Structures are given as C-alpha cells and as structure tokens.
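Input/output pair, single chain:
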Amino acid sequence: MAAFRKPQLPKSLAARIRAAQRKVVGIRVAIIDGDRRIQKASDRVSAYSISPQYYADEFYRGMDADSYPVQTRIVRDWEELAYYERRAPERIVELAEAEAALARVEDEVLLKVLAMRPSTGRVPWPRRLKPFETERLASELEWAREEERSKTRFEREMVRLDADVEKADEAFRQSIAKLVDIVSARLARMPRAKQEVVQSVISDNLARPTERRNRCVRLSRVSGGTGSIAGCCFDSLAWTT
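Output:
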C-alpha cells in the first residue's frame, strides 16, 4: 500500500507547521547542549574533587587552589552543573509537549487543506524533521570538528609565540654578548687598580637589584637593541672612569 502523500498547501498554513517544527528543534538543541554542558561541568567538578591544585593548574596555571579566580570558577562549575541537571528532565517534558503540539498542528492543517477547493500559489508540505538521535549525532560531530579546529589554532598560536620568545631571547643574548665585549675592551685599557675598582662596582650592582638596574633592563627590552644596555652600564660606571 502506497504511503499517503501530503498535499500542497497555502503558505500561511505551511508557516504554521514550520513554526511548530522550530519549537521542537529549539528544545532538541537545548537538550543536546545541556547534556554537553553537564558532561563538561561534571568533568571539571570531578577534577576539583580529586585534586583542587590539579584543577587550578589545568584552568588557571600559576594560581593556587585557594585563589580567588580558581574558587570563583569552581563555584560557577557547581552552579552550572546543578542548573543543567535540574533542567534536563524538564526539557524532556517540554520536548514531548512540543512534538505533540506539532502533530496536532499538522492534523489540523491537513483537515483544512483537504476541505479547501483547489487554488494557486500553494507550496509543498514542509519536510518532516529528522529523528532526534540523528540531530544529536550531527551536533556532536560538528562540536568535535570545532574543538579540533580550535586545538589546531591554539597549537599554531603557541608555535608563533614560542618563535617570538626565542627571537627575543636571541636578541637579548646578542646584546649581552656585545655589551660584555665592549666592557671587556674598556677594562683592558684601564690600569690594574682601576680594573679592580670597576669590577667591584659591577659585581655590587649585579648583586643588588636596584631601581636603576631595573630601569636599564626595562629600557633594553623596550629598545630591542644593545645601545640602551651599554648606555646604562657606562652611565653607572662613569664616576669610576
């Protein structure tokens, strides 16, 4: 026996069916998203329960488990888990009601169309919704793809940052090497007694992280070259020469 083929219908009646379908789809999406949030929040809460410090290291590297950011985050995780777990059964009921309302709308529209005289300007009957589990699987696959894309973007960014740090470190090492050569050359031209005085001053300055020394470091980092470092060094030694 051939399946009953739904007739074409006026646009206004098709819009009623689509509106009811959107209601069903919206609740389905909320259920799927809620299940995902429950899983993620549950994983975070479990991690904190096992080891608060591991949780802190995972989400706030360098922070103590008792720090404000970590404690604020775990409180949000507890609240999020409680909310979505509470809403989960409510949404199942809402979905059943929305699906029943969709079926009722489709029956009402079909009866109206069958009672109408043929007319122009009709549109095809809206397509049936895909099964819920099919939509769930499609959403989970898309989320997995997006997480993989995010992971790839993060890895690329980390590679770029590592390269920038290595470049900055190399420039700093070269500036220090050049400074050492300059200072060594100046020391070599000094009398022995003067060399001992200068070396003592340099050792004392390096042993005490003074504001002047910090200023020299800041200037060298901002300038990105060797001039500021050498200038600071020679300024600090000028009184000895």
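Confidence is low (pLDDT under 50) at residues 217-231, 234-241. The chain is about 80% helix and 0% strand.
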